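Extended Data, panel c. Modelled sequence:
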Amino acid sequence: MKAEDVAEYLQSNPDFFEAYSQMLADVVIPHPYGGRTISLSERQMVTLRERAKELEKKLYELVEHGRENDALQNKLHQFTVALFASQGLIGLQNSIAQNLRDVFSVPHAVLHLWQENAPSVEVLDFADQHALPVCLHQAIADTASWFGESESHLRSFAYMPLRGTDNQTIGLLIIASEDEQRFYPEMGTIFLQRIAELVSAAFRSHL
């Protein structure tokens, strides 16, 4: 008989434990963390303590995740307020770059509006094809050169296409980092999308 058969039998016949309660009290098994043996009830307590630790760890992770989200929401609020306070097109462009640095601690950010900087065919196609932000470890087309002298030091990029009222792209906002893990393809982009939507909305009255 296999161990799986025994386990299946016990699960299907819970009254077995009532009929052989004394046997259960006499059974001893190896301690999971030592050489001695313990009773089934002691082993159950060990299991319960382990589960309690796992639940505490999960709870801690949820609390930390909640704190991180709260912090990001506060930063997004600060960024939004700064956009509303901007004066004119140039003031808005300067405000975006400054607040990406100050609020989100992103030292490298470039913004290209098609009205001022006509994109290459490759860049325009990329922006038109992506409705959501895209994070990459390699710069697309000629966009690395947009960062000037910092180009050779950058290891991760987040591309945020900007859209007008007709949903056509009006520009591209890129933030980059020298840390390869700051932006990566599998990361969530919900906050990046909110930034892109805010910036897009802010420019609509100027273009």
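DSSP finds seven helices and six strands in the chain. This feature is highlighted in the accompanying rendering.
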